[in-house]
Amino acid sequence: MSTGHENIRNTEQLVCSSKTGRRISRAKLAASLTTGLIFFCMILAVSLCLFFARYDYSAVWNDNVSSSFNVNFSQDPFITWHSFTVRQYLWATIVVAAGLTAVFGLVGYAVGTFFRSVYISCGIAVAMCILQFLAMFLFQVGSWVRSILNLTPVMLWVNSNRSGWFSEGGAEIIWAHFETIGLAVSFVIIIAVSVIAAGLYRRRDLL
Question: pTM to 2 decimals?
Answer without folding.
Answer: 0.82
